[in-house]
Amino acid sequence: MPNENFNDLAAFVTVAREESFTKAAAKLGVSQSALSQTIRGLEERLGMRLLTRTTRRVSPTAAGERLLQTAGPRFEEIQAELAALSEMRDRPTGTVRITAGEHAAVSVLASALEKFLPDNPDVKVEIIVDYGLTDIVAERFDAGVRLGEQVAKDMIAVPISPEVRMAVVGSPAYFRQHLWPETPQDLTAHNCINMRLPTYDNIFAWEFEKDGRELRVRVEGQLVFNNLAMRREAALRGLGLAYMPEDQVHQLLDKGELIRVLEDWCPPFAGYHLYYPNRRHPSPAFALVVEALRYRT
């Protein structure tokens, strides 16, 4: 295909992704009729239909989907490279999109960015809290955050936190009415404050380990939350036992407002890592964010 037709491919990718000629035309800065003629010409040269048009939406055909999956990432790489070259002229600019779980976002990203952002006013960071194992390429994130053992082998992984440790905690008022659990199995007799993972829509099992023995206990209780703050507050009010990241309760433990149990069953484990595709050519803005988040012992 002649080089001048690469613009036609770019137009097709935009229409397929926007699923609308109107939106694509606005994004490309051309008229809807000119864009329609461009796509029609591309289909004629290829000898096959790439898009199915209805009154409500536009969607790629099987051939169009194949072309989109092949050409789309290539154009993104070219655009990223051009953006990187442009940024080299001036100070780093742009938006870095990161997906992370709530704890990582609160305990790691927020504190690191508090120091980074004031010195880099042209860099924006968008953080989407998601408990699932998000496909960062498909969802167009620049990077994701996972615990070390969850990072796929084909990704570049940068440590951004020390080891993480969990804690089972309850208030003094709760323990005045209930015996302390001696083993994780004893938790089945307690009123436990559960956590629902929004992405998977199920209750999180509490995980323990001691002397090489691993246990996953599905506890029961009257309360279920999907965030850290509400679980911590419920434990403070004596409404049950909570399974919390240690750093989220250590001040309350020091003050005696919460009591920790089963500490010997909660060893530390690999901390959080920022991960991104190894083929990604980092922009100056992204490279700065990575270095700002990198954990240094």
From TrEMBL:
One of its GO terms (molecular function) is lyase activity. It comes from the Bacteria. Residues 4-61 form the HTH lysR-type domain. Keywords: DNA-binding, Lyase, Plasmid, Transcription, Transcription regulation. Pfam families: HTH_1 (PF00126), LysR_substrate (PF03466). InterPro entries: LysR-type_TF_proteobact-type (IPR058163), LysR_HTH_N (IPR000847), LysR_subst-bd (IPR005119), WH-like_DNA-bd_sf (IPR036388), WH_DNA-bd_sf (IPR036390). One of its GO terms (biological process) is DNA-templated transcription. PANTHER family: HTH-TYPE TRANSCRIPTIONAL REGULATOR, HTH-TYPE TRANSCRIPTIONAL REGULATOR PGRR. Transcriptional regulator of the ttuABCDE tartrate utilization operon. Belongs to the LysR transcriptional regulatory family. This is HTH-type transcriptional regulator TtuA. It comes from Rhizobium favelukesii.
